[in-house]
Structure formats: C-alpha cells, structure tokens
Design goal:
- The complex is a heterodimer of chains A (about 525) and B (about 900).
- Chain A has 22 helices and 15 strands.
- Chain A is α/β, with parallel strands linked by helices.
- In chain A, helix 5 packs across helix 12.
- By secondary structure, chain B is α/β, with parallel strands linked by helices.
- Chain B has five domains: about 90 residues, Ubiquitin-like (UB roll), CATH 3.10.20.740; about 150 residues, Alpha-Beta Plaits; about 260 residues, Rossmann fold (3-Layer(aba) Sandwich); about 170 residues, Dimethylsulfoxide Reductase, domain 2 (3-Layer(aba) Sandwich); about 110 residues, Barwin-like endoglucanases.
- Chain B is about 30% helix and about 20% strand.
- In chain B, a hairpin with a 2-residue loop joins strand 13 and strand 14.
- In chain B, helix 14 packs antiparallel against helix 17.
- The radius of gyration of chain B is 29 Å and the shape is globular.
- Classes of the chains: A alpha/beta (about 525), B alpha/beta (about 900).
- Chains A and B meet through helix 16, helix 17 and helix 18 of A and helix 2 of B.
Chain lengths: ~525, ~900
C-alpha cells in the first residue's frame, strides 16, 4: 500500500483549543507544504495524548517521539525532525522536574486503549497492522458461537457501563433466546458529567469496538448491530462511519464475513442529547424512534429488547475488551485485575489534580494511587477534601477512604459504586454543598419526567439544597433531603432516579458538618459566587 | 383453559388466573391498593409509583407485576405506607390546591388519597412551578385543559392511543417541565382529535374537564340518571348528571367510559329555548297557541273527517326511529286499530329496508347477527358502505382495536374514509356496483376452494343456482364493472376467504341503491359461503343509524308486518292481534315512505300524522316532498323542535325529549335498554306515548296505560322475540332479542344452530346499473353520507353550539382532477345540480373521493343534498337511491 511514510499525531483534547491546537495545525500544514513534505507526512488528529496544560501534544510516528509544541515551534520541528530525521530534544514532552505523563503511562495497563494515540484511527490498515481483526478471524474459523460466549463468561467480563453485570450471561441469554431476529446494541451514549472514557475509544480506535460488536453478533446469533452514540460526539460518529465503511470494504462487516457464512450489519444511531438514553431501555426506545423514556424491567432487553427482540446491550468499553479476550484467552484476562473483577478499567481523572485525563489501569487499583500517582496529586498548597467516585451518580468519599480499591465489589462494600469510573478530586477550595447542588441540578435537568419520585424528587432536592446554600434551611431541610432521596432510591422507575440518592446520602453522611455550617452561618464564598 | 395461580396477599390465600397483576389479584380479594396511573382498560405504565407493594420482601409496583405461584405479597407494611405517602407528597409538591373551585372536588382521585393518607401539610411545596402557572387551555368547543393539575399519569395519552387510536396526545419536554400536549401544541380541533372526551373520562384529577360543566354544580350535588344515548344505533348506556333540571355532564358509555363527541357533549339541545312547549294550531301563515284539549280534539276531528270522506287508506302515518319502542308500538297500533290502515312506515325505509327484506329472505330475520363486543376477536373484518368512524364511532373503535390486535381489515368504499387509511385492503368501487364485487369475492372463494363446504352442505340451500350465477364474475369482469383492480380484488377475497372468524359490517352505502336488496342478498351469500354465520365474532352486521331504528322496525312501524316481523298476511297472526286489540285489522299492506308522498301528490293520501321525523331534509327529492306536504288536507306533527317539516303542519304537538320520558330503545345489536326520565318536559310538552294515548282515545279507540312498562308487557305478550322482556329485567345491561321467555338470557349472536327460516338460502343475484348514470349533462356521481359531528337532519346537533361550530355548513368533496378540470379551487363556493334541483355550497378539493364521484353530507336543511338525490326505488324494499345519482358541479360566477 502506498501511503505516507510518516504520521504526525496532534492531540485534540478537551481545552486544547485554548492551547493553540488550531494554530499548531495550520502552522504544521504550512510548514509541510513549504518544505515539500505534504505528500509524505500525514497529519492525524487524535484524542488526549497526555495530560499537561502547556502547549499542544504532538507525536511523530513511526519513531514514537512525543512533543509539546507551540505554533512557533512548528517550523523547527518540520525542518529538523521531519526533514532532517533528528528529534528535537528541547521540545520533547517529559517535564524533568515532576513525575509526568511518561510515569503515568508506566502505571497504566492499556488493553482497550492499547492503540489509542498510536495508530491512525481513520485507517483500517493501521488497526490491522496492530493485530486488529485477528480475534474475529480466529473466532469465525475456530470457535462456535457457544464457545465465544464461554470464553467471555470464563473471563468474567463485567459490564463497564456502571452496573458491572456479567456480559457473558447477557450473551448467553440472547444466544439461547428463540427466534431468528436478535440484535446487538452498543451503548455509546456517554453522558455522565466528567466521563469521557468511551469517547477516547470511539475516536482513537473505532475498529476495536467494531470488532467487539461483530464478535458479539457472532456469539449471540444477531445479524444486526447498532451503535447508539451521544449526539454531541460528532468526531466519534464520523470516525465510526468511516471505520464501518472500511470494514465493509475489507469484508470484515456485512454479508458473509471472511467467507464464514456469517453476516452482520452495523449502523450508527446518533443520540439527541438526553442523559437518560444512556439507560439501556431508554436507549432502545430512542433507537426505535420513540421518546427516550425507560421501559419497565422485566422484561430485560436480553428477552425483549430492540423491536421486542432479544438484544444484547453493552457499553463501548465492555465490547472493546472482547477482541483481546478472544485473541489472548480468558486466562490472560483473568490475570489482570481482581478475582471478582478481572481486567482493566478506563478511568477519567478530573477535578483539582495536576494531570487530569483518562487512564487505563488494572481493576482494584487503590484510589490513592489513582489520585497521587496517575493524577499527579493535588495542586501545590491544596488539601484533599473529598472524591466523587463513579460519576454524578456516584458517592462522595472522604480522605479517610483513599485506600479503597477501584472495582465493582470493593466500592459496593463501602456503599459506593464504580459507575463510569470517573474520579472527581475535590480540594479544600471547593464547597461540598455547592458541588452537590451542581450534581442535583444536572439530574433535575436530565430527569425524563416519567415517574413521580424522580420528576418531582429532583425538583424538590434542587430547591432544598438551594435553601442550604443560602443558609435559609434548618435541620428539617436536611431531613427532607434524605427522605426524598430514600423515596427516589426505592420507588423510582429506572436507575437514573434510583441513583440520585447516592450522592445525596453520601454527601450528607460524610460531610454533614459542612452542610450544618451553611445552615448556621453566613453563606460560604463558593456558594455565594455559584448561587443561582 | 386459563390456568389458576395461588399466591398470598397480606396473609390471605388468593387464586387468580395466570397473567393477572398483583393489583388486580388484591382487588379481587377485596384488598385496596392506592393507584393513580393504573386504569383497568389501559395497559400498565407503572409511572405514578403509588401502588408499591412488597413481593417476597422486594418493592414492586403492583399494577404491572404479574402474579406468580407462591408469591408472598404484603400491601401495607410500614415501609410501603411511608413510601406511598412520600410519593403522594411529591405529586402534591407541584399541584395547585385550589380544590375550592376545582370541578373535580369530590371526585378527584388525588384529593381522595391525600385525604386518606391525612396529608395536611405540604412539606415539599415549592415557590416557582412553571407548569402550575401555565394558563388553562380552552381552544376547542368542549374540553378544558389545566396543565397545572395534570399529574402526568398518561391515562389520557393511553386512552387516545389504545382505545380511540387517534394518538393526538403525548408527552413533550422532559423532567419537571414535562407536559401532555398535542402535536406542536395545536388546538385539538386542528389535530386528528374526534373530541370523544375519553381523555376527560379517565383523567383522575381536574386537569381535563368538560368545559360546559364549569361552575354548574359540585360533584356531590349532582343527581345521576342512567339512560341511553339518543343519537346513533350503538346504544351507549349513559349517565346524565343533573342539577336544578339541567344536564351538567354526561358519563358512562361503552365499557363504562367510552362515548363519542355527540353522546358526551351533544345532549344540551334538550335545554334549548326554541323547544316546542305548547300545542300550536295553524292560523293563516302562522300558528297560534292552543290547549292540549283543543289541539288533540282538532287533530282527531280532522283525521276522522278524512277517514269518513276518503276511507282509512287516505291517512298515513310516519313513526319515528328516535321514539321509544313503546311509542312506536302505540303509533302503529293507532294507525292500524284506530284509523284502520296499514299506511305506517318510518325512516328505516330510507336506510335498512333492504336489510330487512334481504336478510329475512336469506336467514329469516333482518337484524345485525352479532354483537359489538365480539368485534375484538374477529380475525378479518369487511366493512363496506359504512363510514363507521363518523356514523358509528363506538363500533369503529372496536374495529380499530381488532386491527391493532392483528386482525385484517378490508374496506370497500369509493371514498377514502378513515377506516380505509387503516385497512390492509381498500377497494374503491364505482358507486352502485356492489353486486359485482361481492359476486367477484364469491367467485374467487369458490375458485380457490376457500369456501366452507360443510357449512354450505349442512345449513344452506339453493347453492347450485348461486354458484352458477357467480361463475361469470371473474376478477377481470368485475374490474370492468367496478373499477377495482383484479389483483387487488383477488387478494382481498383470499384474505376474507381464509379468515377463521370473518365479520361483515355494512350500512347505507350498501342499502341505499335501487339494487339495495340484491346487495344485501349478495352479502348474505358471501357470509353463508364462508360459513361466517352463527358463530361468535362472525356474521352479517348491518349498522343501524338511529338510536331506535331497530326497535321501530321490531315494533312494526312498517306497512307490511305486525310487531316482531309477524306476517300481516298470516291469518293466524292477524287473529292474535285482533283478539288482543279488539278490532278487525286491515289486510292490505300499506304505503312506504316515498310511496306516501307520491300518493299525496296523486291525491290518494289526504291526511298525515308524523311523529319525530323530518322528511323535508331526510327524504330524497325534497322539492317533490314539499309539493306533497303542501297538497295534504291535513298534517299533524309531533316533535320537540320546529323544523323544516313542521312548517307545513296544521297542528304541531310538543313532545318530550329522550331525557324527559321513560321507555326502551333497541340498539343496533338488538339490545333492548331502558330509557329513564331525568328531567321534566319543558312547558306543556308531553311524552309521545301519552300524546298517542290521548289522540287514540279521541279517535274512538281508547288507550290507557299508566306507565310505558305496561306497554312493554303488552308488547311481550304479542311479540315472541320480545316475549321475555319486562322492565324488571332491564335493569343493568339490557337484553338482546330474541328473548322469548322470562328466563331466557337473550341472544348475543343469531343463527347458532338453525336459521329462523330453517336453512340459509343462497340467492342468485345479478349486477344492475344504478337508475341514473352520469352523462354529458350531469357527468359526476353524487354520493351522500354523514359527518361525525352531526346527526341526521341536525335537529339536535345543530342546536349544540360546539358541534355546530365544527361543521356549520354543507360542503361538497370533489377530487382534484375533477376540480381542476372545472376550474374549482378548494374553499370556493360552487353550485351542484341534478335533474331535480340545485344547491350552493363550499367545495372541498380532496382525494378522499375518487375521480368522477362527489360527496355531500346530507345533514343540512338549507343546503340539502336531498334536493339532488334520486327518488328511484329498489323494487323490493322501496328504498330510494341516495348513494348514486348524476350531478353537475360548476363554479359560481364571481
């Protein structure tokens, strides 16, 4: 294949716009044009190469040299490295004075993110060169659908969407369900505030997801699959569409895949901006073209899902694990993580840490390690106040709980949840009441309105927490918040409403003093500033 | 056999059929579980979350959890009670507590639970509630919507979707801002809404209420009277809610809550000021008020005078499909016994005379063979010549529901009526060619071996002659006649031929032709051939248009039979009646409606008595009717309003409306039901039966009954099909005839083991062209019919402001191709002319009508379609050809 000899990867991370990504890109294009290298060097935009706030991360492959550059640095980079072949040492990214990204990479175990940032996600050949679609080839040639299901079951792969339900059990139920029509649906409606792990996979390695989906289809007897993607993820959608058409051209998708007789069609469905559609039954309703409201379960999607047919619904990260499991075997997968939760977990680290970003680590990694090693610890002079683990619907943990291991079971033991895996670090400049108020206003905005507890409960909670913020409430306000949380937890129709209770109860039990202080005294500065 | 499941609820052992929900099982055991979104007729959504229970320790909503054997349900643990209370408090957190003036105060389900749970203080109430602040909406004639009182239970949405199949309402926005809205929040009148008000009926709070009832009475002040809707033949049992002699609202209906717009919102006409209140006698060009004594005396005197001078056959009477069974019985008794003629008929002549003639010949009895509640189980439904949605809304609801369940729907109608949009097959025949396509169906069913050979052999006769007759009706031949593509005919015939339970519905579109009787015979052939008679969810089902047209026929307001279709020509039958009535009865069959007017023109009929009919709108070729009425020596009319016909009267007698008298109506499914007096008649108006008794007595044939119940006893003693019917037995759901004895439960479907005539008879019928075909001068075919919002000659619905506003005047539907050729644009006024007259109305350019055919609703007196229609008669049943005549449409010069 005749292609460019060299690829330059340019980071397209959140906030990168300010750091001059656009300027770096245009400077690079100009410089390549001027030096006559435009044909040989391909520019690839890729998500989050690293987590620093200086310059724009750029990497040159195949050499694998990482830089941080400003637009002014670009001509030198082109001249010396791309033309001259000598890496520009001064621009290399690895700050000597702090434990930086290289170290973080060292702590990471990248399975689902293995190719992210390293290959061109818009070229199927890159994925193939990195060993892509070998798992599919092997499964179609050597394994029966039942055997694929067995391997996934044996690997104890648990759903990475938040609930941690064993994927193999879902697959088996769909495989065994009667009838010729079955579906596989990928839940890529990543809407949890502060969670952007699936996006990295979608943008950075779409073929891995597609391979996982085809394997899921083969294993369960489904001949059609859908990827329901958060509508705002325009780049993800574009890359998926491109990847699907490439896979189709290569005979890895569509009719008679690799001459095996197995056919599988795949479609991308963009979401329309409702958080609740991340809940699987709402997602199915929305995919059917209806209002995205949760269905009553049972029946579960595995028996009556999309168009009432047996349906596997799996998260992006879950499916992206499948090719590696099939290729390397369940035993390899079991060697990672904990006994109950093998494998890795992609974690978004955000909040007041030095290096916010996305990492992939073994399940069971202590929270402390995530914050202090991978996240680089707190900013200078700051104290840790608490951590919100698992996304907006997660639990607030106190600094005394940093030794908890991040996996489904360990967190459940302390009344928390792994959820999406997001780790939001809060330092002593934050106010818990303020943070909870912002979490609650998110749920108020996103409650679908179907059932009473969630519809009215989110409204009541927002009003009550505002009272606390303004110092207008009393002990009774806190009691009412807890009562509302209880009825939401026990009586709501879907997990959205049920899960709102956790941030409320965890904040009120672990940080009650802060709430009481608001009731007693003048409003805190944060609350005054953020009050609405 | 349904399996039973045993479970325990609050320690009590309960056994219920599999598939029952926990909520239903608890109710069956007498344990009440509070609920708001649940409605027994709607699918469960479990969104209010009030019906929580503990099942084996887990919290579940009982409305959607099916029972399981061995389940341990606890409905009232402390936890459950606390959570339910919290749910209620949350609902109340944004509910306006304006119970002081809320129309649902006293019947509000939320209010009831708030009281039961003792929620005195609203702990969660907030200051700013956008939805609560939304203004009420009243942008339609009948329904008031207060978004703030809506608890988002989705009952209205579901009833509109699952029952009414209109899908007009849905949720919009989300979360706390969620609202029930129409598409783009348009007024209901700009959506597919039929204003049936089912949404109002199921609303648990004051969010949806009847506009009309506002501030007219609190729930607990309202008196309730159970009676029957006076509009179409569906026979909905309704409850009138009254205060101070006024109808405040209407509830009830099919399955307890289903009505159409007319039944729910169209009954206020009884209170109109222009009701006839005193007897009137003609004086010059006007009328003067008279006492009952004077008026009745005058009527008797003039009728006796005519009888004396010209003989009894110079007098004719029109009874009424709107009056009770008892009144129709008395009317024909008066004409036959007191006057001594059989010249009695009524508007059934103009609707289902061919049904009676045809089905009596084929089966031995001329009525709808099956029942409305069997529709749901039919697997194929054939609707022809019936715009069911507009003329029989409740039947249409059931047809739509059957289709939703997977039933096949075949509609044969030139117009693209609402059901056609839902149909699997829509066959658009040229008007007046029904025998051809029905024979075509039979031809194909025979050819493909889809007929019920055993049924035909065991239960039918004259098969060979019929089979020979349909031989030439190949699909290609039928296409030539009817314009229905051969392939489509083939597929539809196959679908009907393969049905296990095929149900046929038809109405005026089939009967109002010069070939009306043949059409009915052909339909009967199709049902016999496929064995679709005598079983549940099958049959030949003529839909009767008037609330009591069935009863008026049953009680012999017909010129050729005595009550219960007993033959006038039968000496024994006559003897029975002569003995009971104490007079000699005339043998010669009397005149039919159209013949009466022809006879009046010819000077053979000199005096007429008309009870509750308006032939000046409803009869064909009205100019001709006017001439006839003009020519009469004497005309007495009994009615509730002055109308187009009373203008010609010499005496007008004011009658009580349906709400002001006792009696019975017989619905289209042969169900005899009690009408109950809820109001006093206005002024001096009296029930028709009283008027008839007084008049008969003055005619020298005394009648004295203290109550209509006594009349029914007399009917039962002389009429075998009503033999077991008495007022005592008519409490509740009524009885379906035949009901021959006091212990007989009534008959939901006819002809189970045998036909009244013994064997079902096939008839060889041939296609004949309609009496008038389009030509160069009158190039279009006119067909007529009803609209949902109006009833018949609008004597009632024209006086209900909301209904009047919806369709205030007549219009002509014309296909764009025809309109284009004539230079007619939508909304323009046009002149429609036939050989008999012309009218001016607005053109509606629409593909609802096929090219070459135009449609005019016949309700409107001053733009009467029947100025145009052709009085040519079916030779057997004497029905005029309303559904096909030749007309010309032209733009009016601007």
């Amino acid at each position: 294949m005749n292609g460019p000899r060299t690829r330059v990867l340019v980071e397209l991370a959140q906030g990168a716009g300010e750091a001059g990504v656009r300027e770096v890109l245009s400077a690079l294009r100009r410089a390549l044009e001027e030096s006559g290298l435009a044909e040989q060097v391909e520019i690839v935009q890729t998500p989050a190469l690293s987590g620093s706030d200086r310059g724009v991360a750029v990497a040159v492959y195949p050499e694998g040299v990482h830089y941080r550059v400003t637009p002014q640095d670009v001509p030198r980079l082109v001249e010396e490295h791309l033309k001259g072949g000598r890496p520009v040492e001064e621009l290399r990214a690895s700050p000597p004075e702090e434990p930086g990204p290289s170290l973080r990479l060292g702590r990471q175990v990248r399975v689902v993110l293995g190719n992210c940032g390293l290959i061109n996600p818009e070229e199927i050949d890159d994925y193939l060169a990195a060993g892509g679609y070998q798992a599919l080839e092997r499964a179609l040639a050597e394994l029966s659908p039942q055997e694929v299901v067995e391997e996934v079951k044996r690997a104890k792969l648990r759903g990475r969407g938040g609930a941690g339900f064993p994927a193999g059990i879902k697959w088996e139920a769909v495989l065994r369900a009667p009838g010729p029509e079955k579906y596989v649906v990928c839940n890529a409606d990543e809407g949890e505030p502060g969670t952007f792990k699936d996006r990295l996979i979608l943008e950075g390695d779409p073929h891995k997801l597609i391979e996982g989906l085809v394997l899921a289809g083969y294993a369960t007897g489904a001949r059609r699959g859908f990827i329901y993607v958060r509508g705002e993820y325009t780049l993800s959608i574009a890359r998926l569409e491109r990847a699907i058409s490439q896979a189709r051209q290569y005979g890895l998708l569509g009719d008679d895949i690799l001459g095996s007789g197995f056919s599988f069609q795949l479609e991308v469905l963009p979401g329309a901006g409702a958080y609740v559609c991340g809940e699987e039954t709402s997602l199915l309703e929305s995919a059917e073209g209806k209002r995205g409201w949760p269905r009553i379960r049972p029946p579960f999607p595995a028996s009556r899902g999309l168009w009432e047919k047996p349906t596997v619904v799996n998260n992006v990260e879950t499916l992206a694990n499948v090719p590696e499991i099939i290729l390397r075997g369940a035993d390899w997968f079991l060697s990672l993580g904990t006994e109950g939760c093998p494998g890795t977990k992609v974690l978004p680290i955000l909040g007041q840490v030095k290096f916010p970003g996305v990492v992939e680590v073994e399940m069971g990694i202590p929270l402390r390690t995530v914050i202090y090693e991978l996240g680089g610890g707190l900013l200078p002079g700051r104290q840790l106040k608490g951590v919100l683990v698992g996304g907006a619907a997660g639990a607030f943990l106190s600094p005394q709980e940093l030794d908890v291991r991040l996996d489904f079971d360990s967190l459940r033991e302390i009344g928390a949840t792994l959820g999406s895996g997001a780790v939001l670090v809060l330092d002593d400049t934050t106010c818990l009441v303020d943070v909870l108020a912002s979490v609650l206003s998110f749920f108020h905005h996103e409650s679908c309105g179907q059932c009473t507890p969630c519809r009215a409960g989110t409204d009541v909670l927002v009003r009550l927490v505002e009272q606390v913020r303004r110092g207008e409430g009393d002990e009774r306000t806190l009691k009412l918040m807890l009562e509302t949380a209880e009825v939401m937890n026990l009586a709501s129709l879907c997990p959205l409403g049920q899960s709102v209770a956790l941030p409320v109860t965890s904040a009120l039990s672990r940080f009650r003093a802060e709430f009481e202080a608001h009731l007693a005294g003048a409003p805190c500065p944060r609350c005054q500033e953020g009050g609405r | 056999m349904e399996r039973l499941v045993k479970l325990r609820i609050d320690g009590q052992e309960v056994e219920v059929p599999e598939g029952t929900t926990v909520l239903e099982a608890a109710e069956a055991a007498g344990i009440e579980i509070p609920h708001l979104c649940h409605h027994p007729e709607l699918s469960p959504v479990a969104l209010c979350r009030l019906c929580l229970v503990e099942v084996d320790g887990r919290l579940l909503t009982s409305c959607n959890t099916p029972v399981r054997a061995g389940m341990e349900v606890r409905t009232a643990t402390e936890r459950v009670k606390r959570l339910r209370r919290l749910v209620l408090e949350l609902i109340l957190s944004d509910h306006p507590l304006d119970c002081l003036t809320c129309e649902r105060n006293g019947s509000c389900e939320l209010q009831r639970y708030a009281y039961e749970f003792g929620i005195e203080e609203n702990r969660f109430v907030g200051p700013d509630h956008a939805r609560r602040e939304l203004p009420p909406r009243e942008d339609n004639p009948f329904i008031r919507y207060e978004p703030g009182k809506c608890i988002l239970c989705a009952r209205c949405i579901r009833v509109c979707d699952e029952v009414q199949d209109r899908h007009v309402l849905d949720f919009a926005f989300r979360g706390f801002s969620t609202q029930v809205v129409t598409f783009l929040e348009r007024p209901l009148t700009e959506t597919d809404c039929e204003l049936c008000g089912q949404c109002v009926a199921v609303c648990p709070t004051g969010a949806l209420t009847e506009k009309e009832r506002r501030f007219k009475g609190r729930e607990w002040e309202l008196e309730r009277v159970e009676t029957v809707c006076p509009f179409c033949g569906c026979g909905c049992r309704i409850t009138l809610h009254l205060k101070g002699g006024r109808i405040v609202k209407v509830s009830g209906g099919y399955r307890g809550f289903r009505l159409c717009v007319k039944g729910r919102f169209g009954l206020t006409f009884v209170h109109r000021e222009d009701r006839l209140k005193v007897p009137l006698i003609r004086e010059g060009d006007g009328f003067r008020e008279a006492s009952w004594d004077e008026a009745l005396g005058y009527v008797a005197e003039r009728l006796l005078e005519i009888k004396e001078k010209y003989g009894p056959d110079a007098i004719a009477g029109l009874a009424s499909a709107k009056c009770t069974n008892e009144e129709n019985y008395l009317f024909q008794k008066l004409i036959r016994a007191a006057i001594g003629t059989n010249n009695v008929d009524h508007c059934a002549r103009l609707c289902h005379a061919p049904t009676v003639a045809g089905l009596v010949a084929a089966f031995g009895s001329g009525a709808m063979t099956n029942s409305i509640d069997e529709i749901l189980d039919a697997d194929c439904i054939l609707v022809t010549g019936s715009n069911t949605t507009e003329a029989h809304p409740i039947v249409a609801q059931e047809i739509r529901r059957a289709v939703r369940r997977g039933g096949t729907l075949i509609v044969v109608d030139p117009r693209r009526i609402e059901l056609a949009e839902l149909a699997h097959f829509h066959l658009r025949q040229r008007p007046g060619t029904d025998v051809a396509w029905i024979n075509g169906f039979c031809h194909l069913i025979l050819e493909e071996g889809l007929w019920d050979e055993e049924f035909v052999r065991e239960r039918c006769e004259n098969f060979e002659e019929f089979a020979r007759a349909v031989e030439r009706y190949t699909p290609e031949y039928v296409e030539e006649i009817t314009g229905i593509p051969a392939a489509l005919l083939r597929e539809a015939a196959r679908a009907f031929g393969r049905a296990q339970r095929g149900m046929i519905f038809y109405s005026m579109g089939l009967t109002q032709h010069t070939s009306g009787t043949d059409n009915v015979l052909a339909i009967a052939n199709l049902a016999l051939l496929t064995g679709n008679v005598g079983r549940r969810s099958t049959g030949v089902n003529p839909l009767r248009g008037q609330n009591n047209v069935q009863g008026a026929c049953d009680l012999a307001a017909l010129p050729n039979v005595l009550p219960g279709y007993q033959k006038l020509s039968d000496r024994e039958v006559r003897g029975k009646f002569e003995a009971a009535w104490g007079v000699k009865l005339p043998e010669k069959p009397g005149l039919t409606v159209v013949e009466m007017f022809q006879a009046a023109l010819a000077g053979e009929v000199r005096g007429m008595l008309i009870m509750g009919e308006n032939p000046m709108v409803s009869d064909p070729d009205i100019s001709h009717v006017a001439e006839a009425l003009e020519k009469l020596e004497f005309l007495a009319v009994i009615d509730i309003f002055p109308n187009e016909t009373t203008r010609f009267a010499d005496v007008i007698l004011p009658a009580a409306s349906f709400a002001e008298k006792d009696g019975t109506f017989t619905s289209t499914e042969r169900r005899v039901q009690r009408l109950r007096r809820a109001l006093d008649p206005p002024g001096e108006a009296r029930p028709d039966w009283e008027i008839l008794c007084e008049l008969s007595t003055r005619l020298g044939y005394p009648m004295s009954y203290r109550h209509p119940g006594e009349i029914m006893d007399e009917i039962a003693s002389l009429t075998p099909i009503y033999g077991g019917i008495s007022y005592r037995r008519l409490e509740g759901e009524g009885l379906q005839w035949p009901c021959p004895s006091p212990d007989h439960p009534g008959t939901p479907f006819l002809h189970k083991d045998r036909f009244p005539r013994g064997k079902g008879r096939f008839h060889a019928v041939e296609f004949r062209e309609p009496a008038e075909l389009p030509d160069a001068e009158y190039p279009l075919i006119l067909t007529t019919g009803r609209v949902l919002w109006h009833f018949h000659s609008r004597t009632m619905t024209g006086r209900v402001e909301g209904l009047h506003e919806l369709v205030p005047e007549a219009y002509v539907e014309i296909n764009p191709a025809d309109a284009g050729g004539l230079g007619i644009r939508d909304g323009e006024r046009v002149r429609v002319s036939s050989r008999r007259g012309s009218i001016e109305l607005v053109a509606k350019v629409t593909e609802r009508v096929p090219q070459g055919t135009v449609f005019i609703p016949f309700h409107f007196g001053d733009q009467a379609a029947n100025v145009l229609t052709n009085p040519a008669l079916d030779p057997v049943s004497k029905i005029p050809e309303y559904k096909a005549c030749a007309v010309r449409v032209e733009p009016i010069e601007r």
